[in-house]
Automatic annotation (TrEMBL):
Name of this chain's protein: Dipeptide ABC transporter ATP-binding protein
Membrane topology, as annotated: Peripheral membrane protein
SUPFAM superfamilies: P-loop containing nucleoside triphosphate hydrolases
Cellular localisation: Cell membrane
Region forming the signal peptide: none
Keyword Transport: yes
Gene3D superfamilies reported in the protein's UniProt record: P-loop containing nucleotide triphosphate hydrolases (3.40.50.300)
Predominant cellular place of this UniProt entry's protein: membrane
InterPro entries: AAA+_ATPase, ABC_Ni/Peptide_Import, ABC_transporter-like_ATP-bd, ABC_transporter-like_CS, Oligopep_ABC_C, P-loop_NTPase
Record NCBIfam families: oligo_HPY, PRK10419.1, PRK11308.1
GO MF term set: ATP binding
Entry's transmembrane regions: none
Assigned protein family: Belongs to the ABC transporter superfamily.
Organism: Paenibacillus chartarius
Amino acid sequence: MGTLLEIDRLSVEFATAKGDLQAIEDVSFSICAGEVVCLVGESGSGKSVTSKAILRLIDDENGSITAGSITLDGIEITGLTQDTLRSLRGKRMAMVFQEPMAAFDPVFTIGSQIVETIRRHTRQCTANQAWRQAVELLRRVGIPEPELRMKQYPNELSGGMLQRAMIAMALSCDPELLIADEPTTALDVTIQAQILQLLQDLKTEYRMSILLITHDMGVAAQIADRIVVMYAGKVVEQAATKELFAQPRHPYTQGLLQSITTMESDRSRRLYAIPGSIPGLSEMPTGCRFHPRCPYATDLCVREAPPLQDREGRQTACWHVEQVLADKGKRLVNRVQGAAAEASAAVTAITATATTSAYATAVAAASAAVREPVPPQLDTVPLFELRQVTKHYPYGRSLFSRQKKAIHAVDDVSFSIRKGETFGLVGESGSGKSTLGRVLLHLERPTSGAVLFEGQDLAALSGAQLREQRKQMQMIFQNPYGSVDPRWKIGDIIGEPLSIHTSLSAAERKEHVHELLQLVGLSSAAYDRYPHEFSGGQRQRIGIARAIALQPKFVLADEAVSALDVSVQAQIIHLLEDLRRRLDVTFLFIGHGLNVVRYVSDRIGVMYLGKLVEIAPSETLFRHPAHHYTKALIASVPIPDPAHRQELAVIQGEIPSPASPPSGCRFRTRCPAATARCAEEPPQFREVGEGHFVACHDPVF
């Protein structure tokens, strides 16, 4: 395969009020025709800047290419005029952005925008021809009823459907290079599986090259031919995907891979997290930029930056590659020897037993040896109880119609959250998870049913009584930056709950805020700084400090780590676990990252279209799912191992509208095991094992 894209020693700077800041330096890599290359690294590593530089989109953001070259099939891009660039964008190279709503104009229909793109680059094409081509593109990317969708506006499509429509628009002129910047980060695992499968199919069908930017190493493992690892604006390693996963040679790559939470992560052990955080553009360290966080750092690393060197067909920028490889080998030998010793002892114990009780003890020891988890012993006293909770949103009423229409956000949900546990809640967007969370905190009143906190019905409380109870119920939001006032200092943000609910003096509040900052791993110097001065992970710590300021009994974490890098995710998970033990906090953890939810949760509930379809202890749910929807969710998770690539299991179709849910079982329209009974009779929520409940006529097992 010939080289399609060649990036050689590329450097980019941005003009700011503080002067010119270098975003990427000396970046080099190439993409062959028909190849998928993944750019990976933490936020701030320069991935998106590199992708935008290829299309010269940085020109609109006060950015400029200060050195190096970008060549697309022999065409040098760095010196082209904007008119020439416009003829290349869309026609020969196109981009899919992370947030599809930002890529479409909300005042024009989906069809009109795709047609405009086609006609701009295909002068001979008539409006009717472009319309038919756009319909076929929407059909090709898996959008049902494409003729109808062409006439709809962006806000009328779901996130997954809108992402597919953006891919269709990017493909409208048959580009040779498709750049996809975090195209699945904000999507559910089921929609993510659909998008990844679509990209793989399109690559094969169109012989298209793909540059995929992601911080999800599972996605990279399943789709990439080669991986380029970036850190603080520089390439630190690049290799074929299988080689990189099997034998990472840079300490940063090794740290990223160790930080991955998988279905096999041992819940009794702390996740690995790379210490510290990525440096800002104005505070780059000398020498190797990773040395402040690197366990192998020496004086040489502090003094001199290591060059990106070719070794055995791959590239690494590290002074201590041999030591990294030697240590990895030692750890592997020790792990294998330890597992073998434990397994041998377990086998000896089983074969030596003579009585039933001794045999049971030996089997328990054997289970521990192979890391078979034992369910934790939890307090059986419920902190929260939901009794047949329903939340409907009326719409479309008129003076001439007696029929009331409503969106069925939550329907007849009953379960309890025990004191001291972390209860996980999973399901696709539109399943009702966040609505249920708001009803639980009584931020919204249920349409029917009851929410009890410590045995007390929240609906029966007066306004003053409810405000008093709110001290015990707090929330951590998905977007920590959007949930705080950017004009307030951190000390004021964290201290606000103390001002409202306590009689502490200003000096006492300040002292308490300093203690909270220390508790969540931030410096006291953060007190007088503003939110924009912190990274995403640091802002999430600020949100956590605010949530625990009043020492609540319950915290709702709504997608609290879904937008964070894998290493930062691990840091926040550790923090939540430490706070849970230290402050005896009960958590409701809502998320679409199933690996993370499994790791943090004692029990997990699965929601679909407003209904609770399954509840089980965490390990039981993932090892023995009873509902077909749960099984499909788990099968949609990409495995972070390129040696076990497989076609991603994709749930067919879209989640139905909550305004008109299907009769009977709501999942039946997408369920491979649906029968006539499923359409006529709603399944009852029943117990199928100890603590394992499911709403299905024909469970999986």
